[in-house]
Amino acid sequence: MTENSPLRPLRAEIEPSGDGAPATALPGGGANLPALANALRVRTRYDRAEPALRNAALTSPDALAFLEAALALIAETAEATRARALLTDEAEAPLVTVAVWAAEGREPPEPDTLEVSDWPAVGAGRVVRAGADARWPALRAAWGCTDAVLAPFQDEHSLAGLFLLERDGEELWDDAEVHALGGLARLFETLWAWNRAEARYRQTVADLEDGLFDFAFGGSGRRRYTLVTPQVERITGWPTDQMLEGALDWMTDVVHPEDADAFATHDAALWSGDPSQLVYRIRRPDGEVRWVRESATPSRSASGRPVAGGLLSDVTEAKRAEATLLQAKLAAERASHAKTAFLATMSHEIRSPLGAIRGFAELLAEEVRDLNDRGGDVPPQIGEFAGIIAENTQQALRLVHNLFDLSRLETGSLALRSLPVELHPVIERVVEQHRAAADAKGLALHVERAEGEPLLLADPERLEQVVDQLVSNAVKFTEAGSITISTLIDEGSVRLAVKDTGVGIAAEYLERLFEPFSQEDYRLNRSFGGSGLGLAIVKRLLDGMGATIRVESEKGGGSRFEVTFPVRGNE
To answer: Model-level pTM?
Structure first.
């Protein structure tokens, strides 16, 4: 077993092979002419193989083709009778035959496997003569040869495979040739790693949808492409050879005229050394216009010229989808504005007749009462009907007012004032307005005031509208228990909370609670009344006054609405 090393100088001593063959030495630099002649023949033969091996690496279409070509070249150079190339996936995994070769007129060897653990020297990367192994008689019988050499090669510092070369006849490989074979195996190892890396690069590029490019700037600032992957031709429709040969002027032939200025700015940034990205239109040879995104990073060539490389992506479908979405957005906005304008117009038009109906209903009820007081004989249903007309007209007016407010809030035509307002007097007025309704249902109505008098910046009328809506909802949706209105003064803010023991709100509905016309349960709302606009208006009014609202609720366990106002100061 010999150490694998490059071919030694001819004056070096060649160690015995260990298989019983006589060793040839050149002691003291003396000349052994037969050995010298043999060494020269070996060197000449292997020197001729090296450029052929490099050429095979450059011309082979893939790694397997290169391995087969290398196996034939190394076997012929080593004057072998038969040869195998074996590969392994892992350092300790078995070596499996992937290619075989045989000299002319010889039968190729049968595919075989080898255990790496049986050949520790091979696992370490050294060339091994099987004749130096104690098992050689059994191996020779199994392989059917008179001599064999195992030349391993590595990939990323671990065993990747080996060449198993066999020779028939009386002539055996000597140490000089084994050393030369090891040198050729090392060259293959380097080329194999390069070939696999190149194959991985080609596969990666082939899998990309984007195109890769490199270009240098000519003296006039015109691009001269030095690398263009096939994807660039697929995206642009322009042949890559025209780009590489300089027959195509990217600015005038490819870039859409309307994007020429933006493209010139993009190229100027790359020329000056700044990375740049641009989405622009190109014209394909057939006249089709497409959108591309170009991302490029500049650098300097060895001669100092500005160069750049990057990616070219087809974003035509994305731009079309963007345009479709924009059109849909504009259409939705127009529809929303039309709806809001319709609501505003109709609200204004409906309020006048509803006001008249309510007024006449109240007059009718008053006339009925006067007639009854004077002893007139008026059927009692008349007064009841008049009251029902007045009550329902009031509800309709309230709905119309809410629609009108909502439309003005959504169009931004409702101007909110920002004035100092004392919160506690507002709460007291609202509570008094609803106390009779709470008492009628047997509800306890509590007010828990914070110490001091918070002064808010708000619209006084709209602030009272917000508080009224929250308290009104609490009274409406609470059948038994209590309602508590409390305030808390924090540094920089005031919190108003309205808590009830009413029906509560389901967790899955809370996210839609402040949407217009949103109702958790239609049947429930019918029994309590309401249009689903009150809280939507509250949310928008609070947004306009710089306040926030949040809710905590549990179905059947009541609700707690908390509003946080910015404050001007406390008095």
So the answer is: 0.42
Phi-psi domain of 237 (left: phi exceeds 0; alpha: psi -120 through 50; beta: other): left
Measuring CA to CA, how many Å separate 543 from each of 455, 459, 533, 539, 563? 18, 12, 16, 6, 11
Q: Which helix (H) or strand (E) holds 401?
A: helix 380-411
Strands 113-114 and 128-129, by their bridges, are unpaired
Whole-number Å distance between alpha carbons of 569 and 322:
48
Cβ burial, residue 77 (10 Å; 0-12/13-18/19+):
buried
Confirm if 517 and 533 have CB atoms less than 8 A apart.
yes
Tell which wins on pLDDT, 61 or 284. Answer: 284
Contact 217, 40 (CB under 8 A): no
pLDDT above 70 for 15: no
Residue found by looking up tokens 């050995």 in the block: 35
Segment (H or E) for 226:
strand 223-228
How buried is residue 466: exposed, middle or buried, by Cβ count under 10 Å (0-12/13-18/19+)? buried
Tokens of residue 369, six digits: 């009462």
**What is the distance between the alpha carbons of residues 523 and 527, in angstroms, rounded to a whole number?**
6
Name the residue among 166, 174, 131, 132 with its Cα closest to residue 34: 174
Cα 435 versus chain centre, distance: 57
In the chain, what percentage of residues exceed pLDDT 70?
85
* Residue count (the chain): 571
Amino acid occupying residue 436 = A
